[in-house]
Write a structure and sequence with these properties.
This protein is an alpha/beta fold. The protein folds into 3 domains: 121 residues, Rossmann fold (3-Layer(aba) Sandwich); 34 residues; 238 residues, Alpha-Beta Complex (paralog of FGE (formylglycine-generating enzyme)). The protein contains 12 helices and 14 strands. It has a 5-stranded parallel β-sheet, with helices on both faces. Strands 12-11-10-13 form a 4-stranded mixed β-sheet. Helix 6 runs antiparallel to helix 7.
């Protein structure tokens, strides 16, 4: 079972342990260093527990702000892409390093409300017998009883999954009884449309009056959007140091996928023998996720898929220009972020079908460039690259240890969904939030 890591100043031990007890009473597994066997190698154990946790809670107080340990743990959690849950226990406002992340006000030593536990539950698994939220009384003020959860309506995806199950049952029956008519019907009847194409995806289309000119035969009829040549401002003066300095870049015309690559589209490449299956197939083999973005693919798998289509991975500069346009916006749609514009931490708790967020389109009409899944780019990562980046069609460093991912994911906070945010990851790494979007240069 996945666990929660709690980072805190030891001057706040009582509250931290009370919170841990409360979380454990709900079925969560919690790691807190005050319960460590001090005969072990303490720093190595902290690092191992932090790197393997499913969620990171930081208890914000003035002593914690001054703690080198807490600050180091927080920075590592951000670098390791851990869902971060800041809790303001003491002080007037949250820390600058987590200011853009939703924080929970627990001043007065109160336990967080039901919204916090629901958000944690979306990213951390609990014991099999734990099906309801439970609160316990202790030294700290108890949290309010959560409101009953309304039953959810049956979604279209569930209905499609039921259809798939029926088809499977019929197939099994046909095999057992040798029914030639049933076998013939199954072999000649197309699989439901959701398996073949994204329901909401239009066919190849024009963009802003500019015709789509890349031969469809080269791109297997997958919609792409033309990003016209021109300059844009790359980077951010308000982000991390690897986003600085802001610099002007000129890019030639190129095309970018309108949607993230889905399981059903990636499966075509696997079937053709040009791609390897995702390293975890729990979504890939599930009909309900046919039109969700493919995940658990590393950089080489993403590259192989795009090249099989006659395309390639976008450069960092191409990705950022397609996401932000030329007006310096913070998110693809502009400024500010809400759950009706992107799939990020606290909204859904899983991937969503591509193209779900009409309000979250970029200036060029591209979907899901913020949230849902991180997207691999072609570039090597360097935190100093922007200092001497070419001003025209930059390709990234010549070499490195990490490749760049962009866009954030369903379990990341809004800070990492900014169009300028950069993430360097070893190319062999896979994750439930790593996916693919392809680009194509236009030959001169």
């Amino acid at each position: 079972m996945s666990h929660i890591f709690i980072s805190y100043s030891h001057k706040n031990t009582r509250y931290a342990h009370t919170l841990a007890d409360n979380l454990q009473s709900m079925g969560f597994n919690v790691w807190i260093d005050g319960r460590l066997d001090y005969g072990s190698q303490w720093p190595l154990e902290i690092q191992a527990q932090l790197d393997s946790c499913a969620a990171f809670i930081v208890i914000m107080t003035p002593p914690a702000f001054a703690s080198e340990w807490v600050q180091s743990e927080l920075q590592r959690a951000k670098r390791k892409l851990k869902p971060i849950f800041p809790m303001l226990l003491e002080g007037d406002e949250p820390w600058l390093s987590v200011e853009s992340t939703q924080f929970y006000d627990v001043r007065g030593e109160k336990l967080p409300d039901a919204k916090f536990y629901s958000a944690v539950r979306r990213v951390v698994s609990v014991g099999q017998n734990d099906t309801t939220l439970r609160y316990v009384k202790n030294e700290v003020n108890p949290a309010p009883t959560p409101h009953p959860v309304k039953p959810k309506k049956v979604s279209t995806e569930i209905l499609v999954a039921l259809i798939g199950a029926i088809v499977t049952i019929v197939t099994a029956c046909a095999t057992i009884i040798g029914g030639p008519l049933i076998q013939k019907w199954l072999s000649s009847t197309p699989i439901p449309a959701v398996m073949a194409t994204v329901e909401s995806l239009p066919t190849v289309e024009a963009n802003a009056g500019i015709p789509f000119v890349v031969p469809a035969s080269d791109l297997t009829d997958i919609p792409m959007v033309l990003i016209p040549a021109g300059q844009f401002s790359m980077g951010s003066g308000n982000g991390d140091v690897d986003e600085q300095p802001v610099h002007t870049v000129y890019l030639a015309d190129f095309y970018m996928d309108k949607y993230e690559v889905t399981n059903v589209l990636y499966k075509d490449c696997v079937t053709a023998g040009a791609c390897d299956q995702p390293q975890n197939t729990r979504n890939y083999d599930n009909l309900q996720y046919a039109n969700h973005p493919v995940v658990y693919v590393d950089w080489n798998m993403a590259k192989a898929y795009c090249e099989w289509r006659g395309a390639g991975l976008p450069t960092e500069a191409q990705w950022e220009k397609a996401a932000r346009g030329a007006d310096g916006r913070s998110y693809p749609w502009g400024d500010g972020i809400e759950c009706n514009k992107a799939n990020y931490l606290g909204c859904v708790g899983d991937t969503k079908a591509v193209g779900s967020y009409v309000n979250g389109q970029s200036l060029n009409g591209i979907y899901d460039m913020a949230g849902n899944v991180w997207e691999w780019t072609a570039d090597w990562y360097s935190d100093k690259y922007y200092e001497n980046s070419p001003v025209e069609n930059p390709l990234g460093p010549d070499s490195g240890q990490y490749r760049v991912l962009r866009g954030g994911a369903w379990n990341q906070n809004e800070y990492l969904l900014r169009v300028s945010a950069r993430l360097g990851v070893e190319p062999a790494n896979v994750f439930f939030g790593f996916g693919i979007r392809c680009a194509r240069n236009i030959a001169p």
